[in-house]
Design brief:
Blueprint lengths: L1 H11 L13 E4 L6 H17 L8 E11 L4 H4 L4 E7 L11 E4 L5 H10 L4 E8 L1 H8 L4 E7 L8 E4 L27 E2 L2 E2 L18
Parallel strand pairs: 1-7
Antiparallel strand pairs: 2-5, 2-6, 3-4, 3-5, 8-9
Length: 215
């Protein structure tokens, strides 16, 4: 039967209907090199337009919520209350070090995020993908700690979208975090005199027979 059906499709020159929700990958957020102030302004304007629309304002939509600072999981419940959470983004914020960005499924907030934060012992979460009506998203945008809410009505499936939230420390242009190694305070100090580098010389005195066994 399957062979007959395939032959009929080939003869008719038509392709079998697929999943209509599968399409091009949608990018939501700010790409490297783009202006973050312009992104924040555009996102706020789009959210206001959606909330004011008599038709689009009634339908739930996905949105990228970016936070002003890295938060611990127990603080997420208040920030993301009243919306369906798909996943959150987290990284360990170390000075002058690029750390891995982790995507964490977070249906139950904050329980689904606790494991990572407890393992890393830090406040790590800086963004999340949620779903709600534009009116609810506007309320989320006004909450303390929320930097911006970027609505994405064009997203039909989160697995066909790439979300690019700016990091809390980024203010002008989206770029990777600087990766210069550990902070200067943790590096071995170098003594200087009159602007010239001095090497620390360790002199060993000769060991005499009577010194053996002495620590």
């Amino acid at each position: 039967m399957a062979a007959v059906l395939l032959s009929a499709v080939l003869l008719s020159g038509q392709r079998p209907a697929g999943d209509p929700t599968v399409g091009d990958v949608v990018r939501v957020g700010v790409s490297q090199g783009q202006s973050i102030p312009a992104y924040l302004q555009d996102s706020r304007a789009e959210l206001a337009a959606l909330a004011a629309s008599p038709t689009a304002g009634q339908a739930e939509t996905y949105a990228l919520v970016t936070l002003r600072a890295y938060l611990a999981p127990q603080r997420l419940a208040a920030v993301l209350a009243g919306v369906s959470v798909s996943h959150v983004y987290a990284r360990v914020p170390l000075p002058r070090t690029q750390t891995e960005i982790v995507r964490i499924p977070a249906v139950q907030v904050p329980d689904d995020v606790q494991a990572l934060a407890y393992r890393e012992r830090c406040s790590c979460v800086y963004a999340g993908v949620v779903r709600a009506t534009p009116a609810v998203l506007r309320d989320v945008a006004a909450r303390p700690g929320v930097r911006v809410v970027d609505p994405a009505p064009e997203v039909r499936r989160v697995d066909r979208a790439v979300f690019l939230p700016p990091l809390p420390e980024q203010a002008d242009t989206a770029r990777p975090p600087p990766d210069g190694g550990p902070p200067a305070a943790t590096r071995p100090a170098v003594r200087r005199r009159h602007g010239r580098r001095m090497a620390t010389v360790v002199r060993h005195r000769p060991m005499h027979p009577g010194d053996q066994g002495v620590r």
